[in-house]
Design brief:
The protein has about 90 residues and is an all-alpha fold. It is about 65% helix and about 0% strand. It has a domain of about 55 residues. The chain has 3 helices and no strands.
Length: about 90
């Protein structure tokens, strides 16, 4: 059966330092946004909420990249096949 791949996957290029720098830049942009805002409170709150969620996504990426860096795959890769559980 012919098929198409769902997506073209590339290795994750993120490093902890790169994602941390991106988080710092997003936070600095958020600070500037809050200080220079000249809108109604309703418009400001809507814009702020989406920017806070974007910063939260970057911080979640930072957690995942940090955990991936500490992940030890050697025991898993040492297995020749599936590990059988207790009957």
């Amino acid at each position: 059966m012919n098929g198409q791949p769902i997506s073209t996957r590339t290795p994750c290029p993120d490093t902890v330092e790169a994602v941390a720098q991106e988080a710092r830049q997003a936070f600095e942009a958020l600070l500037a946004f809050c200080q220079e805002l000249d809108r109604t409170f309703w418009d400001a709150e809507k814009s702020l909420l989406s920017r806070v969620f974007a910063l939260g996504c970057i911080l979640v990426r930072l957690v995942l990249v940090s955990r991936h860096r500490r992940l030890n795959l050697e025991p898993y890769l040492a297995l020749d096949g599936y590990r059988l559980g207790a009957a």
